[in-house]
What we know:
The protein is α+β, with helices and mostly antiparallel strands and 134 residues long. It has one domain (25-133): Beta Barrel (Lipocalin). Strand 7 (112-124) and strand 8 form a beta hairpin. It contains one helix and eight strands.
Amino acid sequence: MKTLIMTVVMAVNAIAGVIAANVDSKFAYNTIVNEHRQVTSKIVYKVEAGGYLNEHLKYNFAYDNQNRVVRKEALRWDKAKKSYAPYYCLDCTYTEAGAEVTCSRWDRKSKSYVQVEKVTYQKHDDVVDYLISK
């Protein structure tokens, strides 16, 4: 009985916290998860006056066989075309020493991603070093 009461109290607190956090929020989110409990995409909506939701961004995620994110692609809503258009992507490569994250922006002329920056993270003992390069 005590466990049931504690569960109910915790659930009510969680719901109240979510409602309170979203009252003044300018964004709403829809997260899509696959059967492996991995986030495959997340859609971001702008909350307009009156509570109306307008498309804003969409994120797509890809994973490797060790359940690590290897790509995060961002798409921006194009009001004129009424569809999502590529914006930027982050590609992650993992090594024993750490990871490399390559940031690329969408180039409309070439219709492909163009590398903007690369960050290398390496762990030494309990310290993480990073190196930024272009």
